[in-house]
Amino acid sequence: MNLTTKYLGLELKNPLVPSASPLSRSLDIARELEDSGAAAIIMYSLFEEAITAESESMVRFLHHQDTGFAESTAGYLPDHQDFQNGLELYLEQIRKLKESLDIPVIASLNGVTDSGWIKHAIELAQAGADALELNVYYVAANLDQSGAEVENLYLELLKELRGEIRIPINMKLSPTFSSVGNFVKRLADAGVNGVSLFNRFYQPDIDVGRLALRARLTHSTSAESLLAMRWIAILYGRIENLSLGATGGIHTAEDAIKLLLAGADVVHLCSALLEKGPTYTALLLGDIADWMQEHGFESVEDFRGRVSALSAPNPAELERANYLSVLDSYSHSPGVRV
Amino acid sequence: MSHKSMVTLDGNEAAAYVAHMTNEVIAIYPITPSSNMGEWADDWSAQGITNLWGTIPDVVEMQSEAGAAGAIHGALQGGSLATTFTASQGLLLMIPNMYKIAGELSPTVFHVSARSLAAQALSIFGDHSDVMACRATGYAMLCAASVQEVMDFALIAQASTLESRVPLLHFFDGFRTSHEVSKIEKLPVDTIRAMIDEDLVAACRARGLNPDRPKLRGTSQNPDVYFQGRETVNPYYTATPDIVQGVMDRFAALTGRQYGLFEYVGAPDAERVIALMGSGIGAAEETVEHLTALGEKVGLVKVRLFRPFDPARLIAALPGTTKCIAVLDRTKEPGADGEPLYKDILTALAQAHGEGELASMPRVLGGRYGLGSKEFTPAMVKGVFDELAKPAPRNHFTVGILDDVGHTSLDWDPDFKSSAMQGVTACVFYGLGSDGTVSANKNSIKIISEETPNFGQGYFEYDSKKAGAITISHLRFGPNPINSTYLIGNDEASFVACHQPTFLTRYDMLDKARKGGVFLLNSHTPPERVWDDLPRRMQRTILEKELSVYVIDAYGIAAATGMGRRINTIMQTCFFAISGILPKDEAIAHIKEAVKKTYGKKGQALLDRNYQAIDAALAGLHQVSVPGEVSSTFDRPPVVPDDAPDFVRQVTATLLAGNGNQLPVSLMPSDGTWPTGTTQFEKRNLALKLPKWDQNLCTQCGKCPLVCPHAAIRAKVYPAELTESAPEGFLHATIKGKDFPAGYQVTYQIAPEDCTGCGLCAEVCPIRDRKDPEHKALDMVDAELIHAQEKANWDFFLDLPEYDRTKLDASKIKHAMMMQPLFEFSGACVGCGETPYIKLATQLFGDRMLIANATGCSSIYGGNLPTTPYTTTPEGRGPSWNNSLFEDNAEFGLGLRLAVDKQTAQARELVARLADRIGSDLAEALLNADQSTETGLHEQRERVAALREKLSVIEGPEARSLEHICDQLVRRSVWIVGGDGWAYDIGYGGVDHVLASGRNVNLLILDTEVYSNTGGQNSKATPLGAVAKFAAGGKPTFKKDLAMMAMAYENVYVAHVAFGAKDMQTVRAFLEAESYEGPSIIICYAPCIAHGVDLSNNLRQQDMAVNSGHWPLFRYDPRRTGRGENPLLIDSKPPSIPYRDFMSSETRFSLLTRTHPDAAERFLQMAQKQVQTRFDLYEQLAQLAVQKSPASE
């Protein structure tokens, strides 16, 4: 059975690619992922702001420990040992992952300033990353900034990067563009090699006890993958040389299969692995293979995109809200086993 | 001399260097001022630095010094080379093992930065009280007098003990030597190797316990042989002085530095001689040189080896012409006929004289000096020589203080100076602890010492306060080694720098300036106007001493270059630019080099900012043109108000003014008893921003007074008519709710002079303006905008009456916060996580509270002079507080309880016996009073007052006895307060025992999870993966679950609280713990600056600790079992945020991801699992069905 797929110009042994998550922080876990069948690994995101802020706070708490108090003249934290900043560690981690893994290693970058993005992207490429994912975590909270302006930020950034680095670039997008398809097309024109749909923003929560915001991390659910499914199905086969990655809410083999049917080149795993451990990849692969056998598919290519806008029996479902009938038939989230 | 390796370091580092190089097992416990020695050793081992034998010494932090000594004893018996570092109480805890180690003739060196012992008070400062308490242990005692000697003697000690087999206590003066930074010659490894005899090391190995050649040590001996056994060691002690001298001679051959057991300097025909040991030698030697140059026949005997005492070498060292000797001891032995060194020297001379070996017996006088780091100056040395010249010089004198009680003190001329200061450049810098002045100065000394042929010396005066601590740096530079072991005195400094303009009216710093010197001031006032900022006295001094004045706006430059409030490199640049010690460009290059060394790896941006600040400093430095006359209109304000109590005006004010050295003995309490309520007189004005109250928006929830670490925001409820006399601008609002009389007013008032500006009150304030979400009921605003108004408001507020406690329901936060805090304005850190708990306890129970306080942060901000934050109600009641030791606090507190219980029982017996005479109704009521409520307590107090009145007319001894103890009929609340170092480690045995005692005590554990007071050492409370000193690679084990251990007793009330996460639970826990008639323990989560997080986030960190499962909230109340309920109540939800989020928010954890990323990730995974497992376990325990057991009710 042939599970191989092509992604960002890379030959992958199968379509399961763990997305940016803390799992890639540990070499042992990364190896476990590879052994369990992961086809590539996307590293945890390098946050430009975090690097700067961390360096500053490290310096403050380690090198500015003067207290003036006679019993703690040497400060509180041992400061004599040197330490690396977050960027150096990240580059080091790329090198280590490349050394110990056979699968492609994709770096992930989340930046703020143009210069920061470009500078760091070059360094990541030099450290050996096989591709670069831009995780643009941008909440357009500025009321004076139009959608077009936001899109231009992305495009400009991409163009500049494209001019500097040769490795494939993937862009992880949020679902909040008003015309996702058009925007993806423009990104492709500007040289992007792939897009991942969609980025999950951590949603802040409100603490009713303290009447304050609190950060909250919730894992995705299968229901969330349906949004990506629609857009992948719409985009499949419409833009040349553009890889499609599905991300967010892929928990079961069925979730993965649906996205492949919609046309994804790869499906990204995050919450599922955080919850069930790296070896879960092997289980998913087995289930996918079983399904393929059941349905008589020899390779992923045999069924990829079979239920996309191009080839689905009822493509209008993808485009029309058709919500009246959905509401009428409402029992539980459509397509999701609960 | 160029082949010599010169280094700039302090005494602790010098000792640790040799100890680490020549040992393989190091067991320590941190104690000031020795902690740094262990930290250096740990740090080097963490870096993989090996010893002489190519192996990395194993550095182990124990639970106490007693534990460290036990571990060393074991390591020595195991045939290892082992050492430890300690001081003061720590050394006392080692004494039992020291007898053993000496009795077994095990070679080892204990390095001790000698420090005072806690007697009438604790002192962290230097003298020889601790080492003198060890002189009977059988340890040899070798004393180093300077940083160079510390390094040299550490090696001489190691070589000697290996040869003599007599263990050796190597000591030097705490702070003066342990913390003095000096340029010295570093011992090359080859020299160290040459001094250590491998055969002797092999002999240690051979003596070690080994099952391949079994033997037995540590027998129990009976009357037939113990005595003989004790005498077996004599030959070893007899041989030791020769051995040490032999080692010193070998050392001299290798290094050119010759030492003797007793060294004499001075006139060969001296008649008056001083003998002493330790850092005082520096001042004494300078004075002797000065006086002999003037032709005076004076001399000095430097005592090096104090034990075994070698009389023959002492006598050989003394000139035959000596007529009179003053032996100076830096210790006090009350009741003795003289201090130890005096008595030894006197005995040696008398023995020699009696045996005919000394023709004439000089007169020998003993004196004390320098206790608790009291200054010892050439002027005082001269005073001693002057006394010796008198026909009938005083014996048993003191020098350095004014003793108007025992009349022991000698006079000295404070203006006397030795000639040693000639050719020396002296500089004094006044800075804030947090602005980096000290580290910049250490760096300057390094630059000057290493880049010029000059010698340099730095000594730093630190503060007793943690918030807004002030440092004074004393730097000396000169062409010759500097042995001036005293502070830079008046008229000596050619450079005086004031890094904080607020110090201008607080310190007469220009008294230190010498004529023609330089004064550098950091001020945002432009050069043309800055003259007007100076007080009259300062202007006069500038004119009289013809000082050049420079000004720089360092804060402006720091802000403009992104350096925040970090002004140290800016001021350092100015120092070099003005002083001309180095060519300017060269100096700047060195400063930049140092900056690069520190920040190089951390990012170019940081580096650039520092460079910009340095360059801007040069451009921003201006010389002030000094007008010809004094024009200022103000002077230093009075330290305390005129209406302060007598004691405060006489004593406290003197201390606050920095003139404590001038206080005579008569003004000091003789038994260590001090009045409380004195922080209110210490107006420190630290806050740059103050909270501003919006009375219309406020919902009066009471959260702000609860979280304030300094009790600088208060609430009072009072009748509306009282506002009639309020100053204009005094804010108040009608009290909300039906619990208070209609129309009563409430005010949430800040104390602007006492607030530290931490911002926690505004942070916790839950009420935002709907129209302007940036505006809360409390906003932090620039202090100058509201300071004057709030000061007037505060003064008025203080005079408002306290609301009747009996009408408040303490279980409601709003009500509890109407109660007067009896713990205010402490010197704790800005944003301290501990003090709100203590303050809360004093609000709830303060007027009947006895506090036993373990040594640590809470004893320092609780009881460090000059002032104490514990205070009283208008009726004069309040916490009565004492600090016994670090290790014994639970036992000490239990003792207080025993005293209270016994006296209460006795009072009750007497009431019963006297019932007929005092009236059976009153007696009955006194004995059966319900004191579980404020009303009950109030009524009982009234009954006790009535009882007193009755007793006053009843005759007989029983009535008199009852009069003395009838106060105890009012319920007392005994609190045993301390940190995790005490509760988890050094005092745990006592904590455990007291919990098991069943007695009614309340243990308040302020758990910062690290030793905060001594500087962030690892403890058993330190969580997995946290970086701390002695856990540089992250703590590899889980935190001890003290709560679970306490719950195992089943009759202990246990609470795990974090006020910043759930304040109501904290208040409930306090009330329940106190009301429980048995042992209670409240373990309080206390964010600390040692966590590496800005404490303006104190509350957020507590919240994250709880939500991540790091700090579950729960209460275990044995009374519930009696009601058939499960005693355990879980008060927090299951972990809801990733542990990573909590960890990454604090440098103590995140540092590890930088230094040991793999370990950090591993610990994180383990911790994430563990918090969930622990929570599940607690939850399961809380769900167990419980059978009703009347016994536990």
UniProtKB/TrEMBL annotation, chain A:
GO terms for cellular component: cytoplasm. The keyword Secreted does not apply. Keywords: Flavoprotein, FMN, Oxidoreductase, Pyrimidine biosynthesis. The keyword Transferase does not apply. Pfam families: DHO_dh. One of its GO terms (molecular function) is dihydroorotate dehydrogenase activity. SUPFAM superfamilies: FMN-linked oxidoreductases. InterPro entries: Aldolase_TIM (IPR013785), DHO_dehydrogenase (IPR050074), Dihydroorotate_DH_1_2 (IPR012135), Dihydroorotate_DH_cat (IPR005720). Pathway: Pyrimidine metabolism; UMP biosynthesis via de novo pathway. Its cofactor is FMN. Gene3D superfamilies: Aldolase class I. One of its GO terms (biological process) is 'de novo' UMP biosynthetic process. Residues 3-286 form the Dihydroorotate dehydrogenase catalytic domain. PANTHER family: DIHYDROOROTATE DEHYDROGENASE (QUINONE), MITOCHONDRIAL-RELATED, SLL0744 PROTEIN. This is Putative dihydropyrimidine dehydrogenase. It comes from Imhoffiella purpurea.
TrEMBL record, chain B:
One of its GO terms (molecular function) is 4 iron, 4 sulfur cluster binding. SUPFAM superfamilies: 4Fe-4S ferredoxins, Pyruvate-ferredoxin oxidoreductase, PFOR, domain III, Thiamin diphosphate-binding fold (THDP-binding), TK C-terminal domain-like. The keyword Metal-binding applies. Binds 3 [4Fe-4S] clusters per subunit. Gene3D superfamilies: 3.30.70.20, 3.40.50.920, 3.40.50.970, Pyruvate-ferredoxin oxidoreductase, PFOR, domain III (3.40.920.10), Pyruvate-flavodoxin oxidoreductase, EKR domain (4.10.780.10). The record marks 32, 65, 115, 1013 as: Important for catalytic activity. [4Fe-4S] cluster 3 binds at residues 829, 832, 857, 1088. Residues 689-718, 746-776 form the 4Fe-4S ferredoxin-type domain. Pyruvate binds at residues 32, 115. [4Fe-4S] cluster 1 binds at residues 698, 701, 704, 765. NCBIfam families: pyruv_ox_red. PANTHER family: PYRUVATE-FLAVODOXIN OXIDOREDUCTASE-RELATED (PTHR32154:SF0). This is Pyruvate-flavodoxin oxidoreductase. It comes from Imhoffiella purpurea.
